[in-house]
TrEMBL record:
This is Flagellar protein FliT. It is found in: Cytoplasm, Cytosol. Pfam families: FliT (PF05400). It comes from the Bacteria. InterPro entries: FliT. One of its GO terms (biological process) is bacterial-type flagellum organization. Its main location: cytoplasm. Keywords: Bacterial flagellum biogenesis, Cell projection, Chaperone, Cilium, Cytoplasm, Flagellum.
Length: 96
């Protein structure tokens, strides 16, 4: 999963939103598998530390992805709202 989140950062940096979506789906599939196996696995101290490091790395990647996607999401929201306003005006006053 850590490799996938790094790929997600790269996709977000490149504004490859379709690629990012595909990677998100892959991560979700991995999470589902891991949730089913987590209770059955006992980790030693080194493995727990490695797991913690990977989790911290993935959280950092997630923060970077959010930082990169938030401006795009705000722009998309603005476009959607403007389109909705245009439709309401056209409906109220007729198309020009």
């Amino acid at each position: 999963m850590a490799v996938l989140t790094k790929q997600m950062v790269a996709a977000a940096t490149a504004a490859d939103w379709d690629g990012l979506e595909g990677l998100e789906q892959q991560v979700a599939a991995h999470v589902a598998v891991l949730r089913g196996q987590e209770a059955a696995v006992t980790l030693n101290t080194g493995e727990r530390q490695q797991k913690l490091g990977l989790i911290k790395q993935m959280l950092d990647d997630d923060r970077q992805i959010r930082d990169l996607t938030m401006p795009w999401m705000a722009q998309l929201s603005k476009l959607i709202n403007n389109t909705g306003t245009e439709r309401r005006l056209a409906a109220a006053y007729g198309a020009v």
